[in-house]
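Hi P.,

Sorry for the delay on this. The queue was packed all week, but I finally got your sequence through. Input first:
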Amino acid sequence: MDVVSDICRSIRLEGSVFFRSDLAAPWGIQLPAAHEPRFHVVLQGSMWYQTDLMSEPKQMNAGDILIIPEGEWHWVADSVGRKCFLPPEIGAAIAEGRPMFQGDEVATRLLCGLFRFDKALEHPLISALPPIIHLLHNDSASHKFLIQTANWMFDEFNEEAPGSSVLVDRLCEVFFIQALRNVQEIQEFSTGFLAALKDPRINKALQLIHNQPDVAWTLDDLATEVAMSRAVFADRFNHLVGSPPITYLSGWRMQQALNLIKETVLPVITIAAKVGYTSDITFIRAFQRYFEVTPAEYRKNLEYAS
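Then the structure:
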């Protein structure tokens, strides 16, 4: 099983498009901090952008993709120095029948969206992402796939055809996974989770952990499986992933356990066995250390919330 796809399922990744338009100059939009990944795709023309983390603005051209993993405040516009409006102002204008940034000559065809995931299940993959990801247009098959997916989302957004909104959301999630692959291919990482995915032996260890969390893995077992000495494997894994192998294994088990509690009515003892615990008491203690509530309390809180 692909580790990136597996992680995205585990953290309950969801994606959605919140804006798409053919924009005529002058135009400018500012987006407040959202604390969740946002993306912009220039499908035609060009634009400029700047985030809180940037000392100066940067230009994007047709085929470029921007992802802001932490969702910091930023602006996008056809030119530097434009007045930038907030989304509620733009939405109000549309509701009143006076859409903004319209004209005969299109300066930019723009698609904007966001990604959400369960914050209780944060994963090192997300924290390993660079603060700003600007993927330049290129002729690779993977980038062409990204742009084609963005065009599909652009065409489907606001359509009244059956299933359009669901289709856009699913395409958005596919877009995120493919974008992560592009980041991994294009950028060089010496440490962090993306670097771990590039290391064949550490990647194999991650796949073993992800695919078989119910196995009673030990450090020696994992090292043997990837043909490394115990000490070298432990050091390499910790250096790249950011935590020791058994600590990562425990965290992954807890993520799987939480999803089973949310998505099923399985008894705690069954969930414990599915994620590698032979004792439900040991599992309950581990779960409480990780989430600060017992499995039963967490399930009860879900019932109250619904």
